[in-house]
Write the structure tokens for this entry.
Amino acid sequence: MKRIAPIDIAGGILVVAFLALLPMFAASNYLTGVLTVCVIYGIWASSWDFMSGLTGRENFGHSLFIGAGAYTAGFLSSIWSTNPWISLPLGVVIAIAFSLLVGFPTLRLRGPYFALAMLSASAILQRLCLIFWEYTGGEEGIYGLDPLMKTPLHYYWFVLAILVVTVIVLTLLAQSHWGLLLRAIRGDEATCQAAGINVTFYKIVSLMISAGFAGLGGALYAHYQLQVSPPLFSVVVSITVIIMVYVGGIGSIYGAAIAAILLTLLTEMLRGFGEYRLWIYTLTLMLILFFLPNGLIAPLWRRLTERLR
Amino acid sequence: MLQILIYGAVSSAIYAMLAVGFTLIFGVARILNLAHGSFYALGAYAAYVLTSLLGFPLFIAAPLAVLIVAGFGVVMERFLVRPLRSSQLAVLMITLAVSLAVEQALFITFGSEYRNVPSFVADKLSIGGVDISGQRLLALVAGVLVLLGLWLFIQRTRLGAAILAVSQDPEAAQYMGIPTNRIFSIVMAISAGTAALAGVLVSPFLTVQPTMGLLPMVKAFAIVIVGGLGSIPGSIIASLILGYSETIVAYLISTSWTELVSLVAVVVTLMIRPSGLLGRRAAF
């Protein structure tokens, strides 16, 4: 097990402290709301990075898990009016169930099957939400979820704490023997198989972990918006998450979380551009693919702290 | 019964046009083109602009639309995909980026409203008591002709032989003096062109709107997985299977359930026979 350098821990604590105190200086519910969304995107991006960044099996339908978690929360809290705290664990469970449904048939194969199946599954689920509108509320979605906490600020801190836990758990897993195996699978799957590693098992379990955290993020998002709607399943959500991971540096997890926060803030600032926002996103992706294939945040951080290690 | 037979044939033909291009560019250039659906959407919009806005007659507008989209495909392959071809992931990402960019561009230029394209053939035909619009019939006939033409082109011409050679072994083909990169451009043009033609043909009877490319592309994936990645006959058979099962489900149960057909088909195929019906390469 690789030790995490003290400088990384120090940097992490500084960033988290800064994020936690930020809404205190400018006490506006608007800023707290934006930051909450930023942090939730952080959970989504780091969970994507754990599975796809480490094993190199790109998941083009992360929104499937996000939407599954969010809709679980929607059904539970709004339609069956259960205690809102139940939706978090159940959101995780349902997202994991979906990951098994797609993961089992596709992850034992090599080639692009997993990417295609995830993309198709999320697109089809979005359609199903619209088609079975009697149950899902169609275009409008489900309204009237109960909030988890009384004030937005407390909720923001809660979500931030969950992001911190997510990043720590996933980083520890990635640094462990387990993470080494996942990286080995990315390197050469056939050799891993020859070495007696049950490649399929490791891939499916890492997808389950990734889906679980994404579902948790989805349920948190649903209880922040107090509403869920079909665009949660859209390809745009998946691609936004993937772009965040790319900017952060694939396989670094903390980079993905920080890139997600920065990019969501940036998107909020670009709100004036309206329809052109997605264009700017797509353009960012193309530029990064061509000029910064290793990402921006994680390599930059490593560069800056090289002397202190 | 006859109704199922005819409508199933029409949707199979459209699916086949989409899937063949998708599987061709994968089989030859190993490019998994996530922008394939945007060719279809661009074809439909090009037909809309040329006929409704610029007032071209249809028999000029349709081939022109196909040519424009084929050109777009070639440019995309040359400047965006080719520099990144060494990494399969980068190719997936860049083509997905292109498809999002196209969708957004269509959205910004035309808005999200549905657009109408005039019918190519106004008459309705009656076959054995089943009414079918001439436009659907035209789509069927054109689809069959295009697939037949493509098959003859690949099997009977020198260029077709070169394409087959590259798909079997790009390096060996290069050593034999086949200009692989030029073949990729040609295949991309064919692939984009057939997808655009499908878009042009359906534009009068389906809705023309920016997100129209996504679902047909998902169907094309499903067909290609069922038929076997890279196999053209496989994707034609799978198109027939999927087109007919969707029509039958729509008649027997309800149209809501048709979207599930492709998902079930993919899952079943991947569990039982992952290489697809006629896939050459074992996927394990």
Summary: The longest strand of chain A covers residues 142-143. The first helix of chain A runs from residue 6 to 25. The CA atoms of residues 43 and 165 of chain A lie 10 Å apart.
